[in-house]
Every structure is written in C-alpha cells, then in structure tokens.
Fold this protein.
Amino acid sequence: MAKLLKNREILLVVAIAVLLAIIALRFPAFVAPSNLARVYNDTSILVILALGQMAVILTRCIDLSMAANLALCGMVAAMLNNFFPGLPIPLIIFAAMALGGFLGAINGTLVWKLNIPPIVVTLGTLTIYRGLIFVLTNGKWINAHEMSDPFKALPRLVVAGMPVLSWLSFLMIALMFLVIGRTPLGRAFYAVGGNPHAAVYTGIDVGRTRFFAYCLSGTLAGLSGYLWVSRYAVAYVDIAAGFELDIIAACVIGGISIAGGIGSVAGAVLGALFLGVIKNALPVIDISPFAQLAISGTVIIIAVAVNARAERRKGRVILKKAEAV
Amino acid sequence: MADAQISPRNIPDRLEGRGARLLKSWEALLVVVAAVIFLGNSLASPYFLDPWNLSDATFNFTEKAMIAFAMALVIISGEIDLSVASIIALASTAMGYAVQFGFDTPALVAIGLGVGLLCGLVNGVLITGLDLPSIVVTIGTMSLFRGLSFVVLGDQAFTGYPESFAWFGQGYVWWVFSFEFTLFVVLAVIYGVLLHRTNFGRAVYAIGNNQTAALFSGVRVPRVKFTLFLLTGLLAGLASVCLTSRLGSTRPSIALGWELEVVTMVVLGGVSILGGSGTIPGIVLAALIMGMVTFGFGLLNVPGIVMSIFIGLLLISVIALPILWQRARRRPVH
C-alpha cells in the first residue's frame, strides 16, 4: 500500500480525481461522462505534444521550439489546403508531420553534431520558426472560409462515440508505449538521460539518440500543427504562442525529471490531463481565464519541488540498501 | 548538457603573451564586428552619424543590457534566469497599480525596484534554498510573474504616470547622454569591477568552472548564487522602471520575449552558456552590436519579427562558429 502511494502515476490519478470531486461539489454537470470526454478532447493536442517533449526530456534535453514548430507546420498545412483545395487530407497531414520532423531534425543536428546546449538551440529556433511564419505569410491570417470543409471536419468527425482528435491522441499514446517500452530506441532514451557516460560504454550513441528524440518531438509537433489549425479553423503567426510552457508543465507535473532518465508515458498523459482539467474548470468556477498563466506557473514550481524531493529520497534508499548488504 | 573536453594534450607548453592573447580574444573579434557594422550603417544612411540619432539608437539596448550584466554573472556561475522579462512585467504592473492610489515618482521607483528584488528573492529561495534546477524554476516563475500581471490587468493597460516619472526613460543627464545610457555606463563599470576585481567575482567563476571544487575551497556556493538571483531581480526591476517610464504605459505583454534577447546578448558577449567564462567588456560590446543592428534594420524598415529571426540565427551561429572553427583547426593535429 505504501509503495502504491509513492507511485507518481497513482498519485496523479488521485490528484485529478480530488480536483474533479471538488469541482463536482459545486458543478455536478462538469463530471458528466459526456463533459469529461469533451475535456479530454480539448486536451488531446497537449497530450500528443507532451509525449514528444517527454522523449526529449528523457534524454536530458529540452525542446522549447515545439509550439513554434506547431505554428509553422499548422500554417503550412493551412496554406497547402488554401492553394490546393483538392489535395487529400492525409497527404496534408503527412506533409505537416514531415515538415515538423525536419524542423525537429534541425534542432537535433545542432545538438548532436555541434554540441550546442539544447536550451540555446531551441530558444534560437523558437524565434526563427515563428519568424518564418511571418516571412511566409506577411502577417496575413488564413481564416475558416479559406479552408476546405474536409480539412476542418476531420478532427471533429465522430467515430465510435469519440472525435477523431481523441482517437488520434489514443493512437499516439499507444505508439509511444511501444516505442518507449518495446524498442531499443526507447530504452536508449532512458540510458542516455540516466547516465550519458554509462550509455556510451554500453554502445549507445548519445548524440544520435538525442537527434531521434528531437525528430520524434518535431513530428508530433507537426501533427499537432494540422490538428490545431483545423480544430480552431484559423492560422496566424501567433497561434499557440507560449504553449511550449504548458507542454513542459505537463511533463514536469507528470513526474518526468528535467535531469533526464526518469518518466513514463502514463505520467506525461496524466500531467497533460491535470492541466487540461484545470484549464476547462476555470471558466466553470468563474475564475478569469487571465489567471491561467499564473496557475500554470505555480503548478510547475510545486511539481518541480515535489519531483526533486521524490528523486532525492529514492537516492538515499538505494544507499541504505547497499549499506545493509 | 554537453561536457567540456579537457585532455592533457590540449595544455600548451607555454602561454602566449598578453598582447597576442588580447588580439585573439573574443572581445577583439567583437570590436571588429562593431566597427564594421558602424561603418556599414554610416555608409547606408546619411542620418546615422547624427549625435542625436545615435543617442536615440542607444535606447534599443540600454534596458536589455542592464539585465544582461546581471544575467552574465548568473550564466557564468552555471545557472540561468529565464524569468527576467516577466519580472519587468510584474514590476511595471505594480508601479501602474500604485499610480492609481496617487503614489509619486520616488515611491514608484522604490516599488519597481522592490518588486524586482522580491521576484529575485523568490527565484533565489527556490533555486538555492530548495536546491531545484534553475531552468525549470525560472520557466515556472516566468509564467507565474507574467501571469500575475495578466490577473491584475487582463486586457487593460495602466497609464497616467506622473510627469516627473518620465525622466528615467526620456530624460538627459548632459547633452545627448540620456539617463539610461549613463546608467548603462555606470552599471558596466560597477559590474566590471565586481566580476573582475573582487573575491565575489572570482567565486562566480570558480562556481561556474567546478561547483564541487569551489565548495571544497571554501566558497559559499548557495549564498553566492542566491545573491546573483537577487541582483538579477533588482536589475530587472531597474530596467522595468526605465522601460515603463519610456513607454509611459503598462500592458501585461510588456517586454515579451526579452529573456531571449538578453540571453543572446550575454552569449554574443562571449559568456559560455555552460558557465565558467566570459567578461563584462564583452557584454558591453555585444550590447552595442545588437543595438546598432536593430537600429540599422529599423532604418531599413525591417519588421520586428524578421529582426527576431536574425537574433535567433545570431544566437545559434555565435555559439556554433567557434565550435566549427576549433574543430577545423584541431583536425590536422590528429
């Protein structure tokens, strides 16, 4: 039982349940299954992005450019649709993911080949990617009437009771479970983040592993770009500005250690859901949406403090065991 | 993070002379770059060399450079503070709020500096007191501080600052030398002495090079780091006073994205992002270069967001070029 309580994923489930219970006391309609499904659907994009960020953070790096990458890919997807309305939607999604993967690969190459600290690389590419949207569009918007109907309809399309957007996030969660848990690359993420020197001696190429983590986060950002633009039916320079903080917050809340090597897919998903529930509950309990940024900030700080304590305790336990033996 | 490669092979038999080292230094390169940009600007526009135009151009960098001095020490000590722009926003909001209650200029300045100091205190306590990684903490406080200004202001703006308050951002000390530029020079001297001529400065380098070794040589690592974050908060508060006074209004989006420009300035100035090296003259030169580039682009009517692409490229290439250069030089030896 004690072990169960120390498990971060279960703690998070409890925290989310408590949060929902508190909201339900005043507003029972919020926890109706149909509304919860709506909340999940609203959080789907954050879930997908958090999965990509998790892979990067696991390798002891960080990707601050995800939101800018999303915005650029979303804009390119919208422009493709605008110029060639006949283009099949899967092709547009593929193009967005490929572009996202390419932008991620640029980050990865700079980190891998030039050994530039990840935070500097992604701070730089963050402004470059967002600036490119302006160069591409001259600051013009692409509005709903300039997008084709199938382009806008796909994420909303209901299949077996759930919108495609939710299904896509489930698919990505399942894929990440496989990549992280069942492939050499997934294990390499943990090895590189846990101890880069040890990883080298076990035959893992640290730089290459980080490169792939960035490609993964970039590809997921590209997919999210299409989803974002089609869901909100508008594309402009500033979409998802500052969203990189929400993504990192979701990871940190989900127990993914910023020092690398610690974290799980379930943690990232639950961290994103925690933020999603707060975000959707704020208007219901009549708190100004302007408070959301301050709340995310507070939650990040608390989560980091809690994580750091948990990690330290773990270190001590191992030492004690060693002494006992 | 990348680990520095130190092997016995790289230690030379004898050090180069002072003159040769000075000529090959990063700062020498910056002087050349600054001279080229200055020449280019004066050739491109006939209005550039006017003393008043040059004086106007300094406003492009003075506020950011104030924070860059403090940020340089933080980065040299191996930490980072991404919350500086949000501290500006919160301090500015606090000053705007105080104006509604009829506070006068001295009180407003005290409030601006005080809020900056308080924000620095929060960062310092979280980072050194609870021993948390500075990058995540300051990402958190970055959204917290700006979030608080959004809570107070929403989509509104504070205006109506007293007339005497405008002096900090718009006043001149003597002839073309604005208050902000004078402050920039004074701070450069203070920080130059602090970093290069005091025990505290040596301690900052020691911590950045090897924190454990610094601890064992008797450096009070947490206390030094705490002071650095406090100073960064204070200078962000000072920058907030200047910026608010110059703009005459406060919106929650004030100084948005400045943390990036400040970090770029520091890195361009030759401070290693991994800590342990960098100089204040380098920061001064980097500030001048960035100011002149922005001003030059402004004369050419380049929009701000396109300038930010350039700054992003500058940030990456400034770090990448020395690495490529070193690699190209080292290759024949192997």
Q: What stands out?
A: The mean pLDDT of chain A is 88. The CA atoms of residues 39 and 280 of chain A lie 7 Å apart.
